[in-house]
Amino acid sequence: MTITAGGPTTRTTTFREAFREGLREALAADDRVFLIGEDVGRYGGCFGVSQGLLDEFGPDRVQDTPLSESAFVGAGIGAALGGTRPIVEIMTVNFALLALDQIVNTAATLRHMSGGQLGVPLVIRIPTGPGRQLAAQHSHTLEGWFAHVPGLRVVTPATVTDARGMLATALADPDPVLVFEQIALYGASGELPVAGGAVDLDRAAVRRPGRDVTVVGYGGSLAPALEAADLLAAGGVSAEVVDLRTLRPLDSATVLESVTRTHRLVVVDNAWRSGGPMAEVVARVAEEALDELDAAVERMGAAEVPLPYPRHLEEAALPSADRIAAAARRTLA
Amino acid sequence: MTITAGGPTTRTTTFREAFREGLREALAADDRVFLIGEDVGRYGGCFGVSQGLLDEFGPDRVQDTPLSESAFVGAGIGAALGGTRPIVEIMTVNFALLALDQIVNTAATLRHMSGGQLGVPLVIRIPTGPGRQLAAQHSHTLEGWFAHVPGLRVVTPATVTDARGMLATALADPDPVLVFEQIALYGASGELPVAGGAVDLDRAAVRRPGRDVTVVGYGGSLAPALEAADLLAAGGVSAEVVDLRTLRPLDSATVLESVTRTHRLVVVDNAWRSGGPMAEVVARVAEEALDELDAAVERMGAAEVPLPYPRHLEEAALPSADRIAAAARRTLA
Amino acid sequence: MTDPRDPLALLTLMVRIRRFEERCAGLYSAGAIRGFLHLCVGEEAVAAGVLAALGPDDAVVSTYREHGHALARGIPMTALLAEMFGRATGCSRGRGGSMHLFDAERRFYGGNAIVAGGIPLATGLALADRYRNRPHVTACLFGDGAVAEGEFHESLNLAALWRLPIVFCCENNRYAMGTSLARSHAETDLALRAGSYGMRAWAVDGMDAVAVQEATALAVDTARAGAGPCFLELQTYRFRAHSMYDADRYRDRAEIDAWRQRDPIDRLAATLVADGLLDAGGRAALEAAADAELDAAVAAAEAAPLEPVADLTRYVTTEAS
Amino acid sequence: MTDPRDPLALLTLMVRIRRFEERCAGLYSAGAIRGFLHLCVGEEAVAAGVLAALGPDDAVVSTYREHGHALARGIPMTALLAEMFGRATGCSRGRGGSMHLFDAERRFYGGNAIVAGGIPLATGLALADRYRNRPHVTACLFGDGAVAEGEFHESLNLAALWRLPIVFCCENNRYAMGTSLARSHAETDLALRAGSYGMRAWAVDGMDAVAVQEATALAVDTARAGAGPCFLELQTYRFRAHSMYDADRYRDRAEIDAWRQRDPIDRLAATLVADGLLDAGGRAALEAAADAELDAAVAAAEAAPLEPVADLTRYVTTEAS
Ligand SMILES: Cc1ncc(C[n+]2csc(CCOP(=O)(O)OP(=O)(O)O)c2C)c(N)n1
Ligand SMILES: Cc1ncc(C[n+]2csc(CCOP(=O)(O)OP(=O)(O)O)c2C)c(N)n1
Ligand SMILES: [Mg+2]
Ligand SMILES: [Mg+2]
């Protein structure tokens, strides 16, 4: 807790608690809102996020589903059409592959196919990402796929403030919003403003200002990017760290503005390097600010391998603060 | 047919026929090979590609399936593990979303998860792409998604020679290969070498050499790129056209080599611009050949809209030869 | 919508649907309609009977073979034809085409070109009505082919488990494109399969509009009363090919002819004549009226404007106002 | 593999599985095993009985709760523990971990962490055997939760339609994580549901290894004879939580205790003692033997090397030789 003269302005909380507070507030604020998904109720959520909400709000508002990803995501879409505000949890992004038809062919297209008559005010929460030795079928980073699809909004909270506040903003959106929650961050803590609430979803954020090089991350890659900035600072290099926050629509303006000052760019995510979301960030810079770049772009992502189970290999497969710092130094060499 | 002194060396054929010849040859050459999918048999294939093959090879070799994309793609994976060489057709890429779990969570991971013990020598044919006014649930361009996934190979025939020859090479691959067939090209014709056969899948191809600007396309964007090169030539601009052919593994060397000569780059596909496969091509150039670029990269893709039905809007949503040529001229301005 | 005791209204509707579909076939050959076009000629009794059993606040979810459903729901011919011509006045502003007819006012939620893709959606509409304590029922239409899809199975379980107010209406026309029922399904008794989810499920003569309406009314009442979903296997046949692309090489002439003997329009017309409710020239008059309606609708649709290209990327997400 | 008339072998196997699982729990708490860990304590009769009914050329497809299946298939404890320790000598070279145990030689095709994800795969293995005219059968193991997934439904239809040589073995332990059968399934008679695909399907006491073996043998014979797939609902219970993360807040103590009364090891041991096939110290001796085997296996696995980091990206696609 940070104490200032006027009383505490922030308190320390975990991502898990921050997400839960967001859910609790949403359920309390609007009776059209309900939460459905596998084991969100009785079990308390696979990762404990919704623990206690069933008792608090009852089984109509917090509803366990069978193992039927396509049906319950589709049911969320239909329920959204029907005037409610469902929050659907897909337990892990790999299982979202079973619901992609509904998300891409239906949720993302209905407004357009109906000529603007229909809208799908649906929020889908998707725990995602590597880092817990869950191996090749539970560690994917696929938010970039969803960010490719017109009609969807994709947000990726990387701070407890965003974890706490993005849900309210997402629920206010008349279109489908996917919230990707980093599994590896649930237990991590951060400082939450006591006066927290909805946050904007439109802009990337400069999480650390700097002069020499721009490091872009989001979700699971923000923390190592910030750590890399510390390492760099120790060596006299001032890195600016940008958190994309929302992958679609992508706020490339903030990135471009930063690059225009630093002239050097390192991008980092946990997706496989080829075709990952950072390719888009780099492409936009190459289109719109090529002349600003004084060095080749450095791009870091996961090694091109289905994630292996053992810790030493999983760690080697993912970007680390060390390697990010080294990449930043290469742009300055 | 092109007649030379020694007799005809090429003959004119449609993509549909070229694909069918590839299938016929594969079925004739190896009795482990069979074709399954919705309506590939009795109906002759939704787009007529497998017409006649049921009669020729019988129902064990050409097998209709129920509407069960996940099951029959997964069955193809299992059958490949079991020592056969299945060719699975998914009628249109949008329906492949229903089978993504099997493709991404299983086919792409089995070799790795088993520590190299197992392999999945499976070929999946996927008709894809816009251009026939099939609207927002039948016109997607998603090969870039698959190209993101380690463990898969993704090929995109854009000439009748590749349409005819890629299947044999794909079947020889001990790992899963996805062949994306452009629906809009099935009826188009091209010149096929009489002595056609397996083609390499490892290298991109320079389809038209040029000096002033590199235009990169593949699959459905190759034809407009070549047409654009004609338009440019009329104006005295010499464009080099590169056909990627294989999206994973991506042969960026051929692109880089071309850019090193032309110093200008236009990339074109039919995918939505943000996060499409061309972002990766641009990112690689920005990483590996930034200094070679004398102008901002021009990237063209589909408008960020689920494809609308009416012809005038569908056309406006997609890159055209005119607009590609204009983009190329901008790099030279 | 139709009075339960108004078979003449059912006949009128079926004639309108038949004439509409036949006009569409011609317009497609002429190049005025493009993309994929799936007609429901032969299956009119299902469209007329099912939709007649619904109230205006009930919801409808359909497939790409949905012209009949859309007409039966009351969407004007002009709006449908303008849609297929890609005009701004179309029921989906021309963006959807034949496979994506929508009408939010009439709770007609499409028009879905993914086989079985509408079933989860329909389940969700029913969930919303139950959640909001509204006494509405959702009618979800799909084909026999959809019964093989996982989305069908997951949705039926969910709907039965949660006792949602939904009626699953399977238009069993015995073929999924070129694949017959017996080559798609290990168990071809589709009602039996739905019954394995513990819901009421039965087969209905889908060539008899009155029977379809009665069965649907019973199912809708059951669902509305809170007794959970029902499943209707509506046994019918398409007289034409799957789509305008289809050469129809996979069906026997004799089979088609046998089903044509059971033409739902001929049958109901004969009954009405026998009952003295339709006179000799009655059917021809209905057809003439439908044709006149069609002539006017085609003309209006043809005269309608296209959406401006400048609006290409509209209706993707909500526009800031 | 086990002689059909060798209940002592079944008991020995079940004891080995039980001791193995309990050792794993300890190793997990100690941090030696990581990731997700799902134990099958209580369900040993299913593993022992099903696998005992297969021949060496038959194929097995399993889930993330597969240690028992792997042991019953004959994979050595060392290879399994080394896998969970992430060692190069593991049965998947350490790449897979607890959820991804593989052994190609033994036709043990994993170890799948997607619920129902292995079912299409198993169907394909059976298809390949049929296509190649090999007299093998595939046993496909999955849980009750998987029965709600579309992939289950699509695969059962396909297998029944094509009369494939496959036995679907549903380990019905009454819970999918924290969701009980009745909160997952509108119809909780799972054999009845499988029967709706026109395949032989019946329920079996999954706490009785001999009964499981006999039922599986019958099903395997049926499938091998070309009479199509069978479905076995093996009624069992897990005595421990879903995974090591699970606080098990959703089950009644009384329910757990009641099922513990039916412990498959206790029951078979009692029968064997009554039949004079096991003496008073017999079970303790089996446990001691299992513990000794485990001690050696843990030591060997701990001593085994890790894969070098330089090999990180190997085994993704075939390496050029
Ligand atoms: C998921 C999916 N797979 C395949 C198709 C291609 N397709 C369109 S209609 C159709 C047949 C569907 O048959 P059925 O459900 O019986 O409806 P019918 O056309 O007979 O009315 C197929 C295979 C599709 N649109 N969606
Ligand atoms: C497709 C999918 N959805 C969700 C999960 C998360 N999950 C893992 S195990 C499990 C429960 C499965 O229950 P059941 O099939 O009965 O098997 P059991 O664990 O009881 O052996 C769930 C929900 C998953 N792994 N895959
Ligand atoms: Mg049909
Ligand atoms: Mg279970």
From TrEMBL, chains A, B:
Q: Which UniProt keywords apply?
A: Oxidoreductase, Thiamine pyrophosphate
Q: Which CDD domains match?
A: TPP_PYR_E1-PDHc-beta_like
- What span is annotated as the signal peptide, if there is one? none
Q: Which residues form the Transketolase-like pyrimidine-binding domain?
A: 13-188
Q: Which InterPro entries match?
A: THDP-binding, Transketo_C/PFOR_II, Transketolase-like_Pyr-bd, Transketolase_C
NCBIfam families found in the cross-reference section:
PRK09212.1
Domain of life (superkingdom):
Bacteria
**Which protein are we looking at?**
Transketolase-like pyrimidine-binding domain-containing protein
Q: Which Pfam families match?
A: Transket_pyr, Transketolase_C
Q: Which cofactor does it need?
A: thiamine diphosphate
From TrEMBL, chains C, D:
Keyword set for this entry? Oxidoreductase, Pyruvate, Thiamine pyrophosphate
- All copies of the Dehydrogenase E1 component domain together span 14-307
Indicate the enzyme's highest-level EC class: oxidoreductase
> What is an example of a Pfam family matching this protein?
E1_dh
Q: What is its EC number?
A: 1.2.4.1
Q: Does the keyword Oxidoreductase apply?
A: yes
Q: Which reaction does it catalyse?
A: N(6)-[(R)-lipoyl]-L-lysyl-[protein] + pyruvate + H(+) = N(6)-[(R)-S(8)-acetyldihydrolipoyl]-L-lysyl-[protein] + CO2
Q: Which InterPro entries match?
A: DH_E1 (IPR001017), PDH_E1_Alpha_Subunit (IPR050642), Pyrv_DH_E1_asu_subgrp-y (IPR017597), THDP-binding (IPR029061)
Look up the record and name the cofactor or cofactors this protein needs: thiamine diphosphate
Tell me how this protein assembles: Heterodimer of an alpha and a beta chain.
* PANTHER family noted in UniProt: PYRUVATE DEHYDROGENASE E1 COMPONENT SUBUNIT ALPHA (PTHR11516:SF60), PYRUVATE DEHYDROGENASE E1 COMPONENT, ALPHA SUBUNIT BACTERIAL AND ORGANELLAR (PTHR11516)
**Listed NCBIfam families:** PDH_E1_alph_y
Q: Could you tell me what this protein does? A: The pyruvate dehydrogenase complex catalyzes the overall conversion of pyruvate to acetyl-CoA and CO(2).
Protein's recorded name: Pyruvate dehydrogenase E1 component subunit alpha
Q: Whose protein is this, by species? A: Pseudonocardia xishanensis
